[in-house]
Amino acid sequence: YAQVTLVGRDRCHYLTRTVAQRSFPRGGSFTDRCFALPDVTIVPDALADARYADLPAHSLHGARFYGAAPLWIAPHLSLGALSIYDSKPHPEFSDAERAHFRRLSTLVVNELKRQRGLRDLKKREEALTRARDAANAANQAKTAFLATMSHEIRTPLNGVLGMAQVMAADPLPP
Fold first, then answer.
1. What are 132-167's pLDDT values in tens digits?
2. What phi and psi values does residue 104 have, to the nearest 5 degrees?
3. Cβ contacts of 39 within 8 Å, gap of 6 or more
């Protein structure tokens, strides 16, 4: 099976819904051992490799074959790993298969970036909607204020103008 695992400060997090435990401690996991390595890591048979002999005992599926391709998003910055596992050893893993696995990890990184971009776009769209709504509310308040002020100014001004016309039409006695 294959999975994408993101690595945090203390824990690894599966991007899958196929396992009940979606997070696990980083220390000693296959992902933790491989996510920052410069290239694809292939362990044809973990029981035959002293560096990884402890892994099958901790594996959810009793995996013996392990493969990991780091998810590089920038030089010296890996998010985690694209991992493949099998309960049977695979003594042969060709250079072409490694190259394909490397390309798959690049596709995963591109998809993660695309999804992040969509989330960012949605957040910006929501912020713009809130700003538009606030601007519309401010515009309505301004319109109401100007209408009220116009009425408040016009009413006494009409009285003043009316008195001025009366005074201009009839001269006052000395």
1. 999 999 999 999 888 888 878 878 888 888 888 887
2. -60, -40
3. 69, 70, 98, 102
